[in-house]
Amino acid sequence: MPKVRNGSRLDRAAIAAAGLRLLDEAGLDGLTMRAVAAALDVQAPALYWHIRNKQELLDAMAERLFVAVADGVRAPAEGVDWMQWSADVVRRLRRELLRHRDGARVLAGTDVSHPAVHGVIELTLHTLTAAGFGTRQAARAFPTLLHYTIGFTIEEQARVGEAYPENPYIPERIAQSIDATRFPLTAATIGDMFDPDTDAAFDEGLQLILTGMAALLPGQRR
């Protein structure tokens, strides 16, 4: 089996780690199998023994990201309710995605079949059903929280504006392009929609989802 620069063996984990390092340097658009091979100081064909194409590379990288999240997820501690626990889990996921340039784009749409992922799903379903949700409601809730987190973070990372000569997502610049006479509410709230305090914006959106979920619990007024 070929070895990489530090003398360790070339395997799927080493390739995924190199992919994430390259991602931080070049972004998703600069990530290629050839570039990963060069970073590992091996010929590109050596990678194909372990990873057949770029999609499998992204799958391996996404798995590494999610496993890092799952390693810290535990059952709710005493006194922690399902809302707080769910919020903590998705905040943990967002932090991990933000550690890597385009991290959310890497996770989106990938095939991650790892026991650590299944463990987080199982724990989420158990936590929600223990709180009174039906199994179908809990099963719908997990992807809703996951997709919100990934989607929000994709937009958050895109708004750095690295794809443009000048960042078009600055609220003041967006405001200048809006006809306030025709679209007064849009013009008045653009600062909220493109709030640079993305932590607060994420938490407010998350609270909307969790509050909506809570309304489905038995005994809650519709």
UniProtKB/TrEMBL annotation:
Residues 32-51 bind DNA. It comes from the Bacteria. GO terms for biological process: negative regulation of DNA-templated transcription; response to antibiotic. The keyword Cell membrane does not apply. Residues 9-69 form the HTH tetR-type domain. InterPro entries: Homeodomain-like_sf, HTH-type_TetR-like_transc_reg, HTH_TetR, Repressor_TetR_C, Tet_transcr_reg_TetR, Tet_transcr_reg_TetR-rel_C_sf. Keywords: DNA-binding, Repressor, Transcription, Transcription regulation. One of its GO terms (molecular function) is transcription cis-regulatory region binding. The keyword Acyltransferase does not apply. This is Putative transcriptional regulator, TetR family (Tetracyclin resistance). It comes from Actinocatenispora thailandica. The lineage of its organism: Bacteria, Bacillati, Actinomycetota, Actinomycetes, Micromonosporales.
